[in-house]
Specification:
By secondary structure, the chain is mainly alpha-helical. 77% of the residues lie in helices and 0% in strands.
Length: 292
């Protein structure tokens, strides 16, 4: 896979951002960021910035029924539930395990696509990669007691739930991508999701106080500017300039980076079986989108 220098730099940057967000997120939770409040504030801030960008660039705001359905499904299922549940569940498990479970996202997307997209039917090679990825997840779940505290299994199951919920709107978007401007969609969805999550936090986390330590300020800025804005803008650019095979390889790097950083800075050691499971999930995630 040979990439031009600009593309390679952006490709590498995206992998680094997605790989580092997990350990930064986990440490911010440890240092006193209420989970739902943290993700809500992150999305709200990112959404406002993206809205300013769409205004400056004079991007359209589609209002068709398909567009509104995308705004609602992507905002609620992908951002509010997908990310909201992930933030909450990461309190109970290792950051590297959360990243590995999310690496299975492309596999879930392919399964759902089989039923809704005529050109995305599951064939024998895809069945094999799904089986590999699923076996990897089961291996990781079998090692759950080594990945955190008493609620580690609860955390892992909720992460899987978040992945499944986030997959459907991506399939719907792929089917109706002509109906929206992707920059406008992300701006509206992140802003709306931020408002909803902050409202939920005001009820569920009213006894928790945000600790505005130097690290938590850094984490909020990093996750907002890089995790929610830069990474998405880079991904959209790469999506237009790379093949789906090249895009699929992006699934490989973040869990590897997250696993190393989690081990290095948070002492998150993985068992041999969990490492094997991680490798199987990553292989499945990469192979599932490679055209044959």
């Amino acid at each position: 896979m040979l990439l031009k220098s600009k593309t390679f730099i952006l490709y590498t940057t995206l992998c680094l951002i997605w790989g580092t967000t997990w350990v930064i997120l986990k440490k911010s939770l440890i240092e006193g960021t209420p989970a739902i409040y943290g993700v809500g504030l992150r999305f709200f801030a990112a959404g406002i910035i993206l809205l300013l960008i769409t205004f400056i660039l004079k991007r359209p705001i589609p209002r068709s029924r398909e567009a509104i359905n995308i705004y609602i499904s992507f905002g609620l299922l992908n951002l509010v539930i997908g990310y909201g549940v992930t933030y909450w569940a990461t309190q109970f498990i290792y950051s590297n395990v959360a990243s590995i479970l999310w690496a299975g996202f492309p596999i879930i997307v392919v399964i759902i696509s089989h039923f809704y997209l005529p050109d995305e039917k599951i064939n024998l090679p895809k069945i094999i990669t799904i089986a590999i990825g699923t076996t990897g997840v089961l291996l990781i779940l079998s090692q759950g007691k080594t990945f955190g505290g008493n609620d580690v299994f609860l955390g892992m199951y909720f992460i899987l739930f978040a992945v499944i919920m986030a997959a459907w709107p991506n399939v719907y978007l792929k089917k109706h991508n002509h109906a929206v401007d992707t920059l406008t969609m992300n701006a509206l969805c992140q802003t709306g999701a931020g408002i909803i999550l902050l409202t939920i936090s005001s009820f569920l986390e009213k006894d928790q106080v945000m600790v505005w330590s130097p690290y938590n300020i850094f984490a909020m800025v990093y996750l907002t500017l890089f995790g929610s804005i830069a990474a998405w803008l880079i991904y959209i650019w790469l999506f237009k300039h790379l093949t789906m095979t090249q895009i699929a390889y992006i699934a490989f790097s973040p869990p590897v980076i997250a696993s190393f950083l989690g081990w290095k800075f948070l002492g998150e050691a993985l068992t041999p079986l969990s490492i094997l499971g991680a490798v199987m999930v990553i292989i499945g995630a990469v192979a599932i989108n490679i055209k044959r």
